[in-house]
Amino acid sequence: MRQGQVSRQTKETAITARVALDGTGAADIATGVGFFDHMLTALARHSLIDVALKAEGDLHIDAHHTVEDCGIVLGRAVAQALGDKAGIERFGAAHVAMDEALVRAALDVSGRAFLVWDVTFTQDRLGTMDAELVQEFFRAFAWEAGLTLHVTQLAGTNNHHIAEAAFKALARALKVALAIDPRRPDAAPSTKGTLSA
Fold first, then answer.
1. Strand, coil or helix: what is 163?
2. pLDDT at residue 146 above 80?
3. Residue 156 DSSP class
4. Any long-range contacts for 129-133 (C-beta under 8 Å, 24+ apart)?
5. Is 65 exposed, middle or buried (0-12, 13-18, 19+ CB in 10 A)?
6. In 3-state terms, what secondary structure has residue 67?
7. What SS3 class is residue 154?
8. Alpha-carbon distance 166 to 144, whole Å?
9. Contact assessment for residue 140 and residue 75, using Cβ atoms and an 8 Å cutoff
């Protein structure tokens, strides 16, 4: 089992995340932000990554630090679980439709962090969470996991559907990219011979 566990504590948040990349999508999520818990549960379920994540943050201010820092900690746990990335498919892409919304995620587990975000929300909030924090999570997660990640909204008017389709598209792309290729289970998927950052 490829597993990672990371804890991080600052004056703003205290977060612990455990992941198992070869799991069944089990989720044990508690961040204090209901909509975000819903999205992280979907991320686990559809990537088949087991995720246990507990966060305590300065929610009396807002959810910004909690959501962003969860992205940092979860990304680091995934990077730790990947180790030298030997045998992974490396590239993954998925389109996810949720009613009228359609979102594409494409990624490269390259060790070179980058986010291209082409998603538009027309409301300021999703439940109690600021809509702009969806991008903050994706950026932090991509940076710490070492992903080149492109997320593109192709259709959609319902903000909940758009956000959920984005998380599920990321999940499905991760499922593909993190899978082990049985034809080269011990080799780095790179002409360089390594994917080390």
1. helix
2. yes
3. -
4. 129/33, 129/34, 129/35, 129/36, 129/63, 129/67, 130/62, 130/63, 130/64, 131/159, 131/163, 133/36, 133/63, 133/64, 133/67, 133/68
5. buried
6. helix
7. strand
8. 18
9. yes
* Residue 159 to residue 180: CA distance in whole angstroms: 34
The pLDDT, as a whole number, for residue 1 is 81
- Check residue 156 and give its pLDDT: 98
Name the residue among 49, 56, 67, 187 with its Cα closest to residue 130: 67
Q: What spatial distance separates the first Cα and last Cα of the chain, rounded to whole Å?
A: 22
Burial of 60 (0-12, 13-18, 19+ CB in 10 A): exposed
Residue 121's pLDDT is 98
Nearest of 142, 107, 102, 140 to residue 119 by alpha carbon: 102
| Residue found under tokens 């679980």 | 81
Compute the distance between CA of residue 80 and CA of residue 3 in angstroms, rounded to an integer.
7
The answer, as to whether pTM is greater than 0.85, is: yes
Give the torsion sign (CA, 180, 184, 189, 195). Answer: positive
Q: Quote the CA–CA distance of 104 and 110 in Å, as a whole number.
A: 19
Pairing, β 3-9 against β 125-126 = unpaired
